[in-house]
Write a structure and sequence with these properties.
heterodimer, A: alpha/beta, Rossmann fold, eight-stranded mixed β-sheet, two-stranded antiparallel sheet, 13 helices, 44% helix, B: alpha/beta, DNA polymerase, domain 1, 2 domains, nine-stranded mixed β-sheet, two-stranded antiparallel ribbon, 14 strands, DNA_recomb/repair_RecA-like (chain A), ATP-binding (chain A), DNA-binding (chain A)
């Protein structure tokens, strides 16, 4: 729905825009879908000029079809699979996190979502020596726990370097999160190397904490912002070949009493992979660090597979 | 500068009008200028000016952050965070078993939630923490002040007097044992009157007052920058009746949680909330679970559940980002919150260095 404005393309001057507006053509879509001879007559402009403008506008605003073989080649060369550091989780995700896709971890409080996120960040930073951006909206990021995890896996020197590769941004409402993502986009498109280095992963813990205050009631603004966020994340993942990991809460279904992921049906279409984390024993007499991860949605694996994780 | 119009923090009606008029990025808005904007959308010039100001602020904020200034934003590497955390103190609870399972005590910059049945000791712990946050640094405390927001009316000043007197006596014993300069100097200012005068008490009677108080708290905290603890005693009480629309309740609670996290983070203080328990009726049995629903469980970073086992009070750490789940027993004495059997406490060398008073405590307690 782009409005026609002078200077949008060469050949589109202010007077032409005014003439169009007088005849009811406001946006690019209106112009491109109208009959050119008709417009030429009504606005008394030359057919050739109009055809030239239309060609430029189409080239600028339409999407170009690509063929499957080219897409496949491009995918093979640009996608990377990042191992998560936990062999059972890798098995669940078909060998790891795919760049260009979003993975969602959901679970009840205390089920281990933040721990798994920290583990993945530690593994990518230490094992693959890639940079990680961690957006924390719950205040649950504890650097000492991350340090503990790194110490268990690495030698002395590498931990400091690994910690420096993980950048943490604390965002507590959805506009701050969108600002942070915009800033990431600017940084990546300007390709500022040196301090930031090759960023391969963005972890967001948690996305529901910032969206929940806006959802519900009679306002539809919350859904609009949620979809903006979803679109921005997927665009970032696809354009810059990043793997995006988000965590989500669970709520109780009011009619059946079963646990279901938060943020509703609209959000359920956004991540390509969804993993549910649960405690091993539901009655829990003894405290345990075992968790069960089940695959709820995946483009590659059959759903319903379960593996056991140790978040200890 | 390519920020989409849909993602700017503007009023929804205004945003809808901007999108309908065909504006896509913030850059286009800035280029149009206030007069053009007011003509295209049909708003007054003042509104257009305000809108452009908001947009400019967002974009300049983005640009400054890209250029590397990290002043107002909370951005840092994990290494810097680790150093910050290691330098941060904890608020001790005087029950060393509880401090151990919490990793040293109640952590600053995090929200801790205490759930429990009535009478198990939640308000006692809150009052203990309001006194303990004021312990001077040479005794191992954080030397801060406390804000106590009471919704149930369970704050008893005479009880706080008992707890504070016991705390001051404890510190005096340590000072006598160690005989150091700064200990004696600190003791001059650490007295019953100073403790009581640094607990700021607010009474909120319904959820609107509570929300207003929490949203006004940042202003209060910027004037009283020494506050290191915010206690909300009874966050469940105002939200458990009077609500027909449960989704509104969830939304308000989540907004409240985010505001509390912002307070905890920006002012480097600990936030402690107490919650009630409710019964969930399952298929064959019923269990006691914390109130306010599933989504509230995600609000707190650390969750402690207090419960009874015959006549022994137990505390379980149910959710924490850095500690394992565990359960310990505790006692409530006339001095306040204490351990059960002080002789059974094992001590590490680190603990003795960090908290010198743990050694004398063994001799003092019976």
């Amino acid at each position: 729905m782009v409005v026609l404005r002078a200077g949008l393309c060469p050949g589109l001057t202010e007077e032409i825009v005014q003439l169009f507006r007088a005849n009811g053509i406001r946006t690019v879509v209106d112009f491109v879908s109208s009959d050119l001879e008709d417009v030429a007559q009504k606005c008394s402009l030359s057919y050739k000029a109009l055809a030239a403008v239309r060609r430029v506008l189409l080239a600028q605003f339409s999407a170009f079809p690509a063929n499957g073989a080219d897409l496949y080649e491009e995918l093979k060369s640009s996608t990377a699979i990042l191992p998560t550091g936990s062999p059972s989780l890798d098995q669940l995700l078909d060998s790891g996190l795919y760049t260009g896709e979003m993975m969602e971890l959901m679970g009840a409080p205390g089920s281990g979502k933040t721990q798994v996120c920290l583990g993945i960040a530690a593994s990518v930073s230490l094992g693959l020596k890639q940079h990680v951006l961690f957006l924390d909206s719950t205040g649950g990021f504890t650097a000492s726990r991350l340090y503990q995890m790194l110490r268990a896996q690495a030698e002395a020197e590498e931990e400091q370097a690994a910690l420096q590769r993980i950048q943490v941004v604390r965002v507590f409402n959805v506009y701050e999160m969108l600002s942070a993502l915009q800033e990431l986009r600017d940084r990546l498109s300007q390709q500022v190397v040196s301090s930031t280095g090759p960023l391969k992963m963005v972890v967001i813990d948690s996305v529901s904490a910032v969206i929940y205050p806006l959802l519900g009631g009679k306002q539809s603004e919350g859904l609009a912002i949620m979809m903006q966020l979803a679109r921005e994340l997927k665009a970032l993942a696809r354009e810059f070949c990043l793997a995006v990991v988000v965590t989500n809460q669970v709520t109780r279904d009011s009619s059946t009493g079963a646990l279901k992921p938060a943020l509703g049906r609209s959000w359920s279409f956004v991540p390509s992979t969804r993993v549910l984390l649960e405690s091993k024993e539901p009655s829990g007499e003894k405290a345990t660090t075992q968790r069960v991860a089940s695959l709820a949605k995946s483009p590659r694996q059959p759903t319903g597979i379960q593996v056991e994780l140790d978040i200890g | 500068m390519q920020r989409e119009v849909g993602s700017l923090p503007l009023a929804p009606a205004l945003r809808a009008r901007l999108v309908a008029a065909g504006f896509q990025t913030a850059q286009e808005l800035l280029e149009t200028g206030p007069c053009g904007l007011s003509k295209e959308i049909g708003i007054t010039k003042e509104e257009a000016l305000e809108t452009l100001q908001v947009v400019r602020q967002e974009c300049h904020g983005d640009a400054a952050r890209t250029a590397g200034a990290s002043g107002a934003t909370r951005k840092c590497t994990a290494l810097e965070l680790l150093e910050e955390e290691q330098a941060q103190g904890f608020i001790i609870t005087f029950c060393s078993a509880l401090d151990n399972i919490l990793g040293g005590g109640v952590q600053l910059t995090k929200i801790t939630e205490i759930c429990g049945a009535p009478g198990v000791g939640k308000t006692q712990l809150c009052m203990q923490l309001a006194v303990d946050v004021q312990i001077p640094e040479c005794f191992g405390g954080v030397a801060g002040e406390a804000v106590f927001i009471d919704t149930e009316g369970s704050f008893m000043v005479d009880r706080v007097v008992d707890i504070a007197t016991a705390c001051v006596q404890h510190c005096q014993l340590i000072a006598e044992a160690h005989q150091e300069e700064d200990h004696l100097k600190a003791l001059e200012t650490f007295s019953l009157e100073s403790i009581l005068s640094h607990i700021y008490y607010f009474r909120c009677r319904d959820y609107i007052e509570l929300l207003a108080q929490v949203y006004l708290l940042p202003d209060f905290l910027s004037e009283h920058s020494k506050v290191r603890l915010v206690v909300v005693d009874g966050i469940a009480f105002p939200f458990r009746h009077d609500f027909e629309d449960l989704s509104l309740r969830t939304r308000l609670l989540n907004g409240l949680a985010q505001q509390l996290i912002i307070i905890a983070n920006d002012h480097k203080s600990a936030v402690v909330l107490t919650n009630q328990m409710t019964t969930r009726i399952g298929q064959s049995q019923s269990t006691l679970v914390p109130a306010l629903g599933e989504s509230w469980g995600h609000a707190a970073t650390v969750r402690l559940i207090f419960h009874w086992d015959n006549s022994q009070r137990l505390a379980t750490l149910y959710k924490s980002p850095s500690q394992k789940e565990s359960t310990i027993p505790y006692h409530i004495t006339s001095h306040g919150f204490r351990d059960v059997q002080p002789s059974a406490i094992t001590q590490n060398a680190e603990d003795i260095e960090m908290n010198p008073r743990k050694r004398p405590r063994r001799e003092e307690e019976k």
